[in-house]
Every structure is written in C-alpha cells, then in structure tokens.
Amino acid sequence: MGNDPSYTNQKFKVIGSRVKRPDGIDKVTGRAKYGADHNAPGQLVGLFLRSPHAHARIKKISTARAEKLSGVKAIITCDDLPDLTNGDTEARDILENCMARGRALYDGHAIAAVAAIDEKTAKKALQLIKVTYEALPHVTDVDDALKPDAPVLHDYIYTTGVEPKPKTPSNLCNVSEFGHGDIEAGFAEADVIVEKSYKTEQVHQGYIEPHACVASVSPDGTGELWVTTQGHFSFRSVCANLLGMDVAKLKVTASEIGGGFGGKTHVWTEPVALALSRKANRPVKVVMTREEVFRASGPASSTSIDVKIGAKNDGTITAAFAALRYQGGAFPGIWAMLGAMTSFACYNLANVKALGYDVVVNRPKVAAYRAPSAPMAAFAVESTMDLLAKKLRMKPLDFRIKNAAKEGTRASYGPVYGPIGIGPTLEAVKKHPHMRARLKKNQGRGMACGFWFNFGGQTCTDLNIATDGSVTLTVGTIDVGGSRASLSLIAAEELGIPYEQVRAHIGDTGSLGHNDMTDGSRGTFSSGMATIFAARQAVEVMRARAATMWDIPVEDVVWESGQAKATGKKHRKLKALSLADIAAASPNTGGPIAGHNESVPDNAGVSFASHICDVEVDPETGATRVIRYTVIQDAGKAIHPTYVEGQFQGGAAQGIGWALNEEYIYGDDGRLQNPGFLDYRIPVCSDLPFIDTQILEIPNPHHPYGVRGVGETSIVPPLAAIGNALSNAMGVRMDHVPMSPPRILKALAQLDG
Amino acid sequence: MAAHLVSTTINGDAVEFACPADESLLSALRNRLGLSGAKEGCGTGDCGACSVTLDGRLVCSCLVLGVEANGRKITTIEGMAENGVLHPLQENFIEYAALQCGICTPGFLIAAKVLLERNPNPTETEIRYALAGNLCRCTGYDKIVRAVQASARELRQIEKRKGRKKKGKKS
C-alpha cells in the first residue's frame, strides 16, 4: 500500500540507528540551562497582578503607592503599551491578552506588572496597586456562550462564514465548513444511522517548566531576550512589533525548553518583560508560577460536538456529518476549524460535511496543544464509529478497514491523499497480538484512529566544517525532544562521517534567517530537509576544493563515503581525500567550507495512527486503569527510532490523562478552581503501563528519506480508544471527557436504573 | 527579615550561605549557590522537579526551608556523577532515551537513586510507585522505568563483583 520502492530500498549508514543524544550529559548532570536558569547582571524580578474576575470593566488602576515603595523600578499597565498593531487584529488580541486594556476578560488576565529589586519587594508592590473593577456577567461554557441571552465578550465580533452577515455582535466568531458530496442524499441511502452529542472539558499542555524569560532593553533601542520558547524567531517578530522595535535589533536566544506541546508557541509575559526592562532600564526576569501557567497561559479548547454517520448494511459509510463547537478562550481562534478539518480525515467518504463553530468565552486564550483540536473531534467521531459498527454487527476494526482512506482518496478537508498510513496501521492492529490477549472481568478493549496534517514551514540552516574535519550544524528550530540527535544523524549520513563528528546547535536569532516554530511536527522534518541540502551544498564545495588540490577538473571528482575520489584512469594515482583532508587544506584553498539552506519544505506528509487500549474499571469507585496500550503509527522513515517511540508514548500518555482525569474546573463565579498539579492531575508513573509501539514506515514521497512528522498524531486516538474500551468493559457509552470516576459511576447507575 | 547564616554540606563540600527564614531550600540552591539543576515546576511539592536528598532522605526542596539545611547533608543532581564518571542511572537515562525535554530528569534521577539504595531489586510496580511523586509530561514514563530497571541490574552486578573481591581478599 503506497510503499514506493525507490525510497524504501535506500541503504542508510547511520539513519535509523539509536545513538546517544548530544545534549544528554548536560541534562542528566543539571548543567542544561532552561528558561529560569539564566541571570543577567543587575536583573530585576518581574511579577504580574492578575484579574480575580472572570469578566470586569477596569475603572481605575492606581499605582501611586506601589511606585513609591523603595526597590520598585518600574510598573507597567496597558498605558505603557500603546496599540501599535495598525489594524492587525491578531496582534491586537495578543497585546490585549498580554495586558488587559480597560477590561478583564478572564480569571488570571494580566492587569499590571512590576519590576523590583527582589521578589519580596515586587510582591509587596503588587499588593499596593489598587484596581477598581466593575464586575460584568460572564460565560465560561461553550454552549452557554452561544445562547441568545449570553453576555457578549466583544462588540466587534460579527460572525463570519455565514450568510446573511449578522446585524448584532455575538460570541460566535466564525463558522467554517469542510466536505464534499451531498450528505442529505447520503443519509437517505443509509440503512443505519447513528447520531450522538459529546462534550470534552478544557485541558492544559502541562509542561513541567513554567514560562520564563530574561528581557533586557538598552536605551539605544536594541534588546535581548532569553526565553523558553518553541519559536524564538516568531517571538522576536511578535515582541518587536508590539513594542515598536526593529526586528533585527532584538536578539532572542532560546533556552533549553522544559516541554511545550504547543503552549510555548505563543507569547504571554515576554512583551511585558521587555516593556518593564525598557522602562526600568535594567534586565528583568519573569518566571510564571504554576498557578499563573494554568490561569494565564494557553490551554486547549473545551468542546461540544454533534456527530451523525450513516452506513449501508454491508458497512459502507454513505454520509457523515459533524458540528463542532470549540471555545478559544477570550479571543477568536481557529480551533473549531482545525477540528472540522481533521474530524473525518481517516475515512474515504462520498458525502461528508463538517461545520466548525469558533466561540469566545471568559477563559484564557487557547493555544495549540499537540495536534490541536484533533483529539476532541476524534473522540466524537471514533466513538460514533464504534456505535455504528455495533449496530451493523460488524467488528469496529473491520468497519474502519472497510472505510479507511487510501491513496487517491479525497480527504474530507479537501486535498487528495498520496501514499498514506491509515490502512497499514489498521492492518497492523489486526495482526497485533494485543488484539488476541485475554481480558478479565471489568476489563474491556477499544481501538481508535487518529490523523494530523503535519507542517513544513520556513527553515534556515547552516553547516560549517572546521579545519579538523568536525562539523557544526546550526539550526533554527527548537529541540523539544531530541531533534539535535536526529539532525546530526542526517548530517553524518549525507557527509559520510561518524555521528560523533557532528555537533548540532540551536542558533539564536542573530545567527540564522527566520525559522518558523517547532510546531506541526516539523522540527526533524523541516530542519532535516534543510540539513540534507546544506550538507549537499558543502559536498559540492569540497568537490571543488579537492579538484583544486589535485589540479584537475571538478567534473572528475565524485563524493563517496565521506571522501572525494578522482574518477577515470588518468587520475588513478590520486589517493582519495577525506573530509578531514579537505578541511585541513581549506585555509589555502579558498577559506572555510560551509553549506547553507533556506527553504519552505512543504508536503510534510500526513500522519495516521491506530491505537489499541485495554482498561479495567472498578465498579465501586468508577476509577479506570489503563492496563495495556499499543500505539501503531506511520513515521514515513524513523531517523532515530527510540525518539520516535518516545513521541508515540508521550502523546498516548497525554491522551490517557485527558481521557480519564484532566479538566479545568470553573466555579459559578467564573474562576478556575484547580490551578495546580495536585487538583489538575496529570498521569503519574504508577497510573500507566508500559506503552508498546510499532513504527510503520510508509515513505513520504516529498522527503529525500521519506520522513513524515511524528510528534503529534499520537495524542489523537487515546480519548476515543479509552471511551470505546470502557464501553466494551462496562456497557456504558461515555459521551463526556474526562471519563472521571464520578461520571463513570453516574453512567453505571443509569445503566442499573 | 534578617538573614540567617546556614552552615551545611552540599555534595560533600562544606558550604555557608545566608538566607531569610522564609526562603525555600530550592530558592537558596538556585539563586544563592548557583545550583540550578533542581527545577521549580510547581512550588507546591506536586511535581518533584526540585528533588534533592536531605541527610539521605528524598525531599522536595521547594517544601524545605533554606535554614533547615543547617548542619545537615544535602545532595543535588550536581553531585551525582563522581569524579567525572556518570552514575549508571545517568548513563542509562541517556542510553534508554528516558528524557525528552529533560526538565524533570534531575528530580527523577535523585528519586531513582534513593529507591535503588533502599531496594536494589525493585519490581516494576515498586519503581512506578517510588517515582509517582515526580511528574514527566514528555515520555509517558515507559523509558524512565526501563532505564531504572537496567540501572538496578547493573548496580546489582557491580555489588556482586565487589562482594566477590572482598571474599577473595579474606580467603
């Protein structure tokens, strides 16, 4: 199925080996420097004052007493951040999210910030700032926000994507539609139709490292930012634009990153830290507390989704429909749109329609979270697929295989697929011993599929060869989980040298051209591609240098196994020159040897996964344990299989937490009640089993090695896989995530009643 | 609040520092002593990223006061490798890819070392419960548990060899 032999037959020397990562020793000895581990001479401590209201008008902010406190060096409110966004509504929303402008839109919204000589003084100063609020009615639930009597957050949001254009503002920002065919005709053809509604609660990425930065702005308008981020070039552009700085005069250095999963693709405190530094004329360090991370960084959407699928008795789906309502927090987002695009992407459907409703509520501005928006849509669709299979008296796996998308299928979101992995992952499920393992009482098995687009994006990479033959690879994509190892492997493969001879670095914004963020599973895909081409450029340089050294035409020089060789009988006495030989001579043959690549490697290659999950439910408490879990996913080509497995396992674990426990709990007052790891419980080691993985390699024809992004898809199937397993274990269909003990007990009680 | 002088031993070295009575040990380590290997993930003892040992006992340094270190022995991640040689746990965390972002790694290594000192042959379940106070959001714990299992095996073999040598000397 779609295995292109020209790629699979490629013989690799080091690609696919499980080498040690170059940053490993620093990270096991405590030497690695993360966001909060950097300090600048004379730095101040920056702290934020945040709204205790879900929705309020800010009538007055009085900073006079705080300003007089000894040790306070700067106080910032929105007055210090004039709106320079010039009609760019996205930038304006970022500005208003970083610092409230006349109104607080959610519990935790920044109202003011202080820079002081130490934390104690800064805290005292926050207490001295007096804010007069006028509380306004609020709404935190996505369905409530769409009711006619809901408080409207923004007077400038008129729903787009609908005809006729509404005459009044509302919380519905946009309606997006995807699909093809005629679903009415399709449902008319169906022998069996299942229709069901689902809800999923809000979750947070839960990276262990809180947001942290050190900002330093000089009186001459230049600045530096040390920050934990998934994209230092993007942070540079956003911060410079908001503050009216020249982009090139702000140097952003990315620290080691302690997890991001999408949450560190957005700025939160960084523009304010720069503004504080500019005002105080000293470096300012801002480190969020865990409570601030939960209340005021960007979690994922909560959702409400309706799904309707119809099929013929032979199992052919005739029509599929979904209406997906996603809240983006207090500002417009594209989250429902992404949910609508991904919802039916696994299947080959003649008639399909998905409607995405993007909604604003009084919650923090939503950010990307690993395959953003796809897990909720997959929960609704894949749960419905199981219900429909049951009605058709088919095995859910066979029902999925029958309807799986394949090469040539028009995807529900538009494009026609090339070679893809959904079919092969489903066939692999069928063959997997997990599917035949015995289950005991109160145990059940479920499976589900997932999809993610993957992304290419702007990339710029440098490869420099030192005179001793060692190689520096400088990339601009943040290493979130081992990509420096994979990229070094790629450079070694291309140059024909040992992995250990390559050292990969993440360059700061002063050392490379713009690189998009590490998101969309693009790090190893995009920078890998740029590394290949940079290395090939360096090889061309080395061929020319060898030709110079030998004084023969460059056409007579070939590059093989890390050596320049002269071809033809007349050159047979010329001994091959190694990379090190050519590098050693480089000062006299034209100077440093380098390769460079800037590109936008599109066609990252869509990614599919199928997961199998066994659960055991305690009927007395409603507690669910995952007792066995298997991830099967298409990686295109696994550059470093251990780290690919790690991505599969990590995504599955996050999905398991989402499915069973994690949820933002808001009180009637619109305030978040569980902003801490004790009450927002992510999976701990004793909650999980080993997570088995199977890597499939269906090459991406648009990458020289066949690589696809691998980072995100693994979080998509677990919600539904667990829901389906629960259904098979206890006979209850859970339609509300998380499937926490109280919800399961309630469902079991309804079953008995 | 006046600062208190604290005399303590950190990773075998005698260390003195001054800190106010309400300052956490984590803050003192990171901000006064430059030992930033211990991380603050939550500040409330829920994530274990700040794990150190205090007189051999595993603690969250965010829940210990700096002044409590007076007269006690502290070990941090910076003291785990001896004479430039990585501890088997450190080697195996790299070998088994038990870290992705690595922010939780110092805490896990400290917690795992304490576990293996007390229980050289833990079951998988014992490992999972011993490490349940340390949060990792990247790995799903799979490769962490495998790295600890491999380290336990290695350490037992090292002990065995030592035992044999001792016996050999006696006879």
Describe how the helices and strands are arranged.
The complex is a heterodimer of chains A (753) and B (171).
Chain A: H1 5-8, H2 24-29, E1 44-50, E2 56-62, H3 64-68, E3 72-76, H4 89-98, E4 103-104, E5 110-116, H5 119-128, E6 130-135, E7 172-180, H6 183-189, E8 192-200, E9 212-217, E10 223-227, H7 232-243, E11 250-254, H8 270-280, E12 284-287, H9 290-296, E13 303-311, E14 317-327, H10 335-342, E15 352-359, H11 374-391, H12 396-403, H13 422-431, E16 443-452, E17 459-465, E18 471-475, H14 483-495, E19 502-506, H15 523-550, E20 557-560, E21 563-566, E22 577-578, H16 579-589, E23 593-599, E24 607-617, E25 624-634, H17 641-660, E26 691-696, H18 718-730, E27 736-737, H19 741-752
Parallel strand pairs in A: 1-12, 8-27, 10-11, 14-15, 18-19, 25-26
Antiparallel strand pairs in A: 1-5, 2-4, 2-6, 3-5, 7-15, 8-13, 9-10, 9-12, 13-14, 16-24, 17-18, 17-23, 20-21, 21-22, 24-25
Chain B: E1 3-10, E2 13-20, H1 25-32, E3 51-54, E4 57-60, E5 73-75, H2 88-95, H3 105-118, H4 124-130, H5 142-170
Parallel strand pairs in B: 1-5
Antiparallel strand pairs in B: 1-2, 3-4, 3-5
Helix pairs in contact in B: 2-5
Q: Estimate the global geometry of chain A from the Cα principal axes.
A: globular
Q: In which range does the helix fraction of chain A lie? A: 25-40%
Strand content of chain B: 15-25%
Q: What is the CATH H-level superfamily of the largest domain in chain A? A: Aldehyde oxidase/xanthine dehydrogenase, molybdopterin binding domain
Largest sheet of chain A: 7 strands, mixed
| Count of DSSP H/I helices of chain A | 19
If you consult CATH, what is the topology of the largest domain in chain A? Aldehyde Oxidoreductase, domain 4
